[in-house]
Amino acid sequence: MANYFNTLPLREQLHQLGQCKFMDSSEFTDGVEALKGKKIVIVGAGAQGLNQGLNMRDSGLDISYALRQVAIDEKRASFVNTSEAGFKVGTYEEVIPTADLVINLTPDKQHTNVVESVMPLMKQGATLSYSHGFNIVEEGMQIRKDLTVIMVAPKSPGSEVREEYKRGFGVPTLIAVHPENDPEGKGWAQAKAYAVATGGDRAGCLKSSFVAEVKSDLMGEQTILCGLLQTGSILCFDKMVEKGIDAGWAAKFIQYGWEVITESLKHGGVSGMLDRLSNPAKVKCFEVSEELKDIMRPLFQKHQDDIISGEFSSTMMKDWAEDDKNLLNWRALTGETNFEKTAPADVEITEQEFYDKGLLMVAMVRAGVELAFETMVEAGIIGESAYYESLHETPLIANTIARKKLYEMNRVISDTAEYGCYLFDHACKPLLADFMKGVEADICGKDYNEGKDNGVDNVTLIKVNEALRSHEIEAVGARLRGAMTAMKQIALG
Ligand SMILES: NC(=O)C1=CN([C@@H]2O[C@H](COP(=O)(O)OP(=O)(O)OC[C@H]3O[C@@H](n4cnc5c(N)ncnc54)[C@H](OP(=O)(O)O)[C@@H]3O)[C@@H](O)[C@H]2O)C=CC1
Ligand SMILES: CC[C@](O)(C(C)=O)C(=O)O
Ligand SMILES: [Mg+2]
Ligand SMILES: [Mg+2]
């Protein structure tokens, strides 16, 4: 098998990378009709498998699960969770032959092996679905020509796919049909119905391609979504402790801080988040984030370049072949960081305090969101997709850190995202070392406004506001948020 993207002529690469159309709600008026009464079998019941299945069943679809014999025999979490939720569960041989739609929600590393086992059991003309296109795009998996191949990729951790659905909303979703596998022309109708069933249409759906999804998803998860939140957590915690701040307080501040500050990001964009700071703090935050953008830009660009060229995927696949040596080592190192090892103190921190004492964290979020967006767009990813993959998803990842710190984030995201997160983190920490030496507590743990007058130069403030508001991500965000009429505020803390 060869990297599918790299086999395409440049013209076709650019076409597939740029394939992305925001779908109006009127395109979903058929609801789940295209899948109503069809037998839908989900393979794997982890982060996405279980949560997508729960949403789809609540939306009126017929869902069952195919698990490995060993998972059933050993009564693994996948078997217990699906059985206790009342789903029909069986082995591949028991449930796949009658399925109209088989949804592969196993880890990317297992896709070749899973698809090779599942495909011979699938009936003629059935559909195979993915939630991430790695197997098709980076590994070049070939699928039987009578099968339709679709993708419904939630731009969110599986836990939040369920939480947002229960709130009456959903998560932005990219849908695609593999151009090599749409023999009956039914792919788009099924992908749309599936996205409605998970709640994706309420947040926004993009009609995209496997290629555009892979090249943007890998970029988001490695940089702003997971990599930078990990680096920022570790560096900010160590700085606060170095400056004499109580370690338990710092652990609590950082664990919950990302969630609190990115809630205003989700609802009001980057400007909305910085509007929560006092005027002098906003000016300072702008300057700090500009410096961070200059330092980190080459690293963001390297990640995007390696993703586009296939260098990233071949490196990760080498690690798969070596039994995840790097992944497991990095996972262990993350567990040993002082941030992870320090229990959060039982102290009250008000919502406003997270902004006033967390200026550096706000600056990191702004720098990371804008850099990820800019780098993706430069590489040919459409703005709407880059927005979902950077700005909208950051709070959804922050929700997982608020639950159980970096451990929880890395447990809930895919193994692919976890690998990329560590890869970025191990390159970013040394890159920020000199910058961090100059950081004082007034931007990391103490109130920036304390002991200062609240005055600010008019011209400077006007320029800062103008720069924030005129960034392309703000225009794209305002449009997309305009369609998110059911978005809910979440209860914080
Ligand atoms: N994690 C996330 O939130 C997101 C994931 N995705 C994509 O969704 C897909 C699923 O990812 P994710 O939910 O993280 O996966 P998980 O790691 O959570 O999947 C675990 C499930 O896969 C099963 N499994 C593991 N190995 C095998 C195997 N060799 N054969 C059969 N079943 C196996 C496990 O079975 P058992 O119980 O037997 O161990 C378990 O049920 C991936 O393509 C990922 O990129 C997309 C968006 C976000
Ligand atoms: C951010 C990581 C992700 O792409 C996701 C939750 O969207 C993943 O692969 O887990
Ligand atoms: Mg993703
Ligand atoms: Mg991913």
From TrEMBL:
Keyword Transferase tagged: no
Q: Which residues are in coiled coils?
A: none
In its UniProt entry, the species of origin is given as Flammeovirga yaeyamensis
Instruction: Identify the residues that bind Mg(2+) 1.
Output: D217, E221
Q: State the Pfam families in the record.
A: KARI_C, KARI_N
Q: Which residues form the KARI C-terminal knotted domain?
A: 209-342, 345-487
**Which cofactor(s) does the record list?**
Mg(2+)
* Keyword field contains Isomerase: no
Query: So where does Mg(2+) 2 get bound?
Result: D217, E389, E393
Q: Under what name is this protein listed?
A: Ketol-acid reductoisomerase (NADP(+))
List the GO molecular function terms. ketol-acid reductoisomerase activity; magnesium ion binding
* Originating gene: ilvC
